Amino acid sequence: MATPEITGSSTMQEVLDAFPGAQRALMRRYHIGGCSSCGFDPSDRLIDVLKKHNVLDVGEVIAHVKQSHEEEQRLQMDPLELSQVLQGDTPPRLIDVREEHEQSIAKIDGSLPATEELLQEIMETWARDAPIVTYCHHGIRSLDAASYLMGHGLTNVRSLRGGIDAWAEQVDPSMARY
After folding, report:
1. Which residues lie below 8 Å from residue 11, measured CB to CB, with a gap of 6+?
2. Which end of the chain is more exposed for a tag (fewer CB within 10 A), N or C?
3. Which residues of 42-57 are buried (b: 16+ CB within 10 A; e: fewer)?
4. pLDDT tens digits for range 132-177
């Protein structure tokens, strides 16, 4: 699959369409797009957003967005792959980052709900290289959660691509979907 092309003249919507994780990448490195003071409009051109934030090297930013996209692709685990590793000798710990009402509809057996207490336990007592897989409904929030955990020093974290919806479709068709 060819890598989509973006330029400084691309709108932010075009950037996000080509690289869905671009906003995470921009926030991590440049503090762009995470709050009202650093946000942008989808119709803004990338070069204008960067100028507003005193970021001058458009090429470096585009390279960072592309590299982050590739890293996020490696960070994700397909449902069938997860199903296989759960049967292995060292299964990952599953962290469900969905809301409580979503968890009441369907969940993957053995998963732990992401609570403040669990997060504190992970940070204080879990091995930094403990295998962890985060999941949500469609794989967006879990990718954010996996990135957060990695940003705090955990080294063996993945996110379930497509979330529990893909799991229900590909692994457990008897599971309720919403």
Report:
1. 42, 43, 44, 45, 46
2. N
3. eebbbbebbeebebee
4. 999 999 999 999 899 889 878 999 999 999 999 999 999 999 999 9
For residues 44 and 111, state if they share a domain.
no
Query: Is 65 buried (19+), middle (13-18) or exposed (0-12) by CB count in 10 A?
Result: buried
Number of Cα atoms under 13 Å in the Cβ half of residue 13: 4
Does 64 share its domain with 87? Answer: no
Q: How far is CA 177 from CA 41, 87, 101, 104, 143, in A?
A: 33, 23, 13, 11, 20
What pTM does this model have? 0.78
98 and 163 share one domain: yes
User: Cα–Cα distance between 172 and 166 in angstroms, integer?
Assistant: 9
Q: Could you tell me if 99 and 70 lie in one domain?
A: no
Based on the structure, what is the number of domains in the chain? 2
Q: CA 50, 65, 147, 94 torsion: positive or negative?
A: positive
**Domain residues for 52?**
12-74
Question: Is the separation of the CB atoms in 82 and 160 below 8 Å?
Answer: yes
Residue with tokens 């585009």: 62
